[in-house]
Amino acid sequence: MASPINSVPMLDLKRQFNSIGAEINAALQNVNESGQFILGPEVKKLEENIAAYSHSKHAVGCASGSDALLLALMAIRAGKGDEIVTPSFTFFATGSCVPRVGADLVFADVDPVTFCLDPKSVESKLTEKTKAIIVVHLFGQAADMSAFQRIARDYEAKYGRKLYVIEDSAQAIGAEYEGVQVGNWGDASCLSFYPTKNLGGAGDGGMIVSNDDEIAERVKLLRGHGMSPRYYHKEIGVNSRLDSYQAAVLNVKLSRLDTWTAMRGANAERYEKLFAAAGLEGAVITPQKVGNRRHVWNQYTIRVTGGKRDALRAYLQEKKIGCDIYYPLGLHQQECFAYLGYAPEDLPETLRAAGEVLALPIFPELLPEEQEYVVNSISSFLG
Ligand SMILES: *Cc1c(COP(=O)(O)O)cnc(C)c1O
User: For an engineered disulfide with 36, which of 40, 104, 205, 276 has Cβ 3.0 to 4.6 Å away?
Assistant: First the structure.
């Protein structure tokens, strides 16, 4: 008889390693024997594999998803005097890359159903200085990309200059909008291989995916100190190279990604059924897949209404059930962005989401019994 469930981890990467450990170890052994630890053949192979997987022309590795965002802005020459619109309800790196290049950060609000950037809110923030918008495919679901493409076209018609669309796909590798993968809707798309992402390395890593030859070329130059040829620097870049260890691990894992994504999707469906059976309508709002999109479920984020989110979280923690709040504050509420002068209620949907969201375990190897335990525990607290 299986032992009864009395705890559920938020994420258990050991279960994943148990299924592919031998292959990972062999791949790392190869890197050790090759003596090539920075970029090199494993990184080149990963860049080719990710470009093929994404159906994109180029993929350029770098040190993290945060650096991918920074490099994308450097590649489009964003800087002083430019405004860049990002959501406030996102991970910090989506916003912090903007002041890092000297540009002005402008926050827009999110759609309450998808938690992704709201096109109407973005439109209200555009000025003649807007250089780019960074669209985040939050929690694994694509944002409304046809709306953002239309916004970019209208902007160009009105102001006679290009509005760049950068996709932050850190949580959404493999997600699709109307049958086309994320990464192919904007001018450049940023991936993260942080271990908790759907395709996670054994450390930090990131990549820029693009169909634009010039952007890809510039990212390659800028990730290596703007150096070409060796020791000749055309402009000031950064040191942001992907290491061969990460690429070797990721090359092994990429072959499993679609299987793992399907397992995440099955877990999301099971939660949906369990929550429906628990009769928590109104108290818990489950995440919805919207329209013609492929959701890759990096997070399963419920809303807990009635001001009970924090108490529920404390209860689940006491029961040793992993859960987390992504994100407890909008970026516009962060101390380091106080200088921008936003009041919390300036972005009402961001403020409401930050007070209601709770992410539950959704990793591929999560067991049905564990999901039952999670939902039963939520039900006994709220019911
Ligand atoms: C993880 C993440 C990043 C940053 O990626 P790192 O690899 O951790 O630097 C950027 N944006 C979003 C939305 C993320 O989830």
Answer: 40
Pocket test for ligand 1, best of 62, 91, 116 (most atoms within 8 A of CB): 91
CB 258 within 8 A of CB 196: no
What would the pLDDT profile of 202-252 be if each residue is shown by its tens digit? 999 999 999 999 999 999 999 999 999 999 998 999 999 999 999 999 999
For 163-208, how does the pLDDT look when each residue is reduced to its tens digit (9 = 90+)? 999 999 999 999 999 999 999 999 999 999 999 999 999 999 999 9
Cα of 152 vs centre of ligand 1, distance in Å, is 24
Angle at 322 (CA atoms; ends 320, 328), nearest 5 degrees:
125
Q: How far is the CA of 91 from the centre of ligand 1 (A)?
A: 6
pTM over 0.85: yes
Question: Is the distance from the beta carbon of residue 136 to the nearest atom of ligand 1 less than 6 Å?
Answer: yes
Nearest residue (by CA) to ligand 1, atom 7, is 65
Strand partners, 239: 224
- Nearest atom in ligand 1 to the alpha carbon of residue 205 is 7
Strand order in the sheet with 180-181: 180-181, 176-177, 293-294
